Amino acid sequence: NMKLLQNIIPIIFFSLNLVIGQDHSINFDGNDDYIRISDHASLDLTENYTLEAWIFPESFSWLAGIISKYHTNAANGYMLRLTHQSPYTGLGFDEVVTSTGVLNSNQWYHIAAVNNGGDRSLYINGSEYTLSGTPLNVSANNNNLKIGSDYGGRFFDGRIDEIRIWDIPRNQDDIVATMDTVLSGAETGLVAYYTFNEGSGDTLFDQTGQGHNGALMGNPSWADGYTLSGLLGDINFDEVLNIYDAVMLVAIMLAHEDGTEFQLHACDTNQDGVIDIEDIVLLIQWILDIDGNLRTALSHGNYSLNNR
């Protein structure tokens, strides 16, 4: 892919850290941090539900919990967590798993796990991933719901943002349409919703009005969160604009890579609905910190491809 840039941009080693406005997340230390949400009948989902989260893993460990209602022996509640397979860079959902290598550290990912009458599906950044194994026969239980922890103190290391819990199986189109937008909290089927935008304090408030507030346990820290404004140009979702994003943008523009729907959005830096040379030049301006707020499209631009 580096050859694609030879007639487009110089090799650039500068990087520009994204400025993430007033969006927040919580950083879990992987040792004892989690959020506790009291058990409630509306959270005892067994047959049809969707779990969504934005995650920013900083390291990977065995079965580290993201969303879990499985904390006592044989409770058999639903769970979304890292996989049991070393190096734990995959995801597990109700005991079915992706392959490893689908996650990298220090990158934001949108995760959506769907149970549709027993059939499990899992989406990462809007794209469906194959699951293997036999799904858990999920049962209602009296366990608390926890964010950042699974059974036996399996703690997540990294940031978590925008948790959404639905009592309906959402389809892929609906997931993609709303995964980068703020919800009202009144959407049909939404039983718990956490924006993480409090930014301080020891309570995570449920935005549905149903009172499923969470208590921060173990002293996790507030941190910058995922935002759509921070995503533009960040094709690999690592919160840094650099040459790697430019390489990916060029590869997608030239159809050498397909890109996910979310990557396609990030590639359209000037938001004109077309991925072209103007987006590349604008991204380079951001990388060089010429004008991080510029969105104006160039009036002229062209490129050539050298197959050397």
TrEMBL record:
Pfam families: Dockerin_1 (PF00404), Laminin_G_3 (PF13385). Residues 255-290 form the EF-hand domain. The keyword Ribonucleoprotein does not apply. Signal peptide: none annotated. SMART domains: LamGL (SM00560). The keyword Disulfide bond applies. One of its GO terms (biological process) is polysaccharide catabolic process. SUPFAM superfamilies: Concanavalin A-like lectins/glucanases, Type I dockerin domain. This is Dockerin domain-containing protein. The lineage of its organism: unclassified sequences, metagenomes, ecological metagenomes.
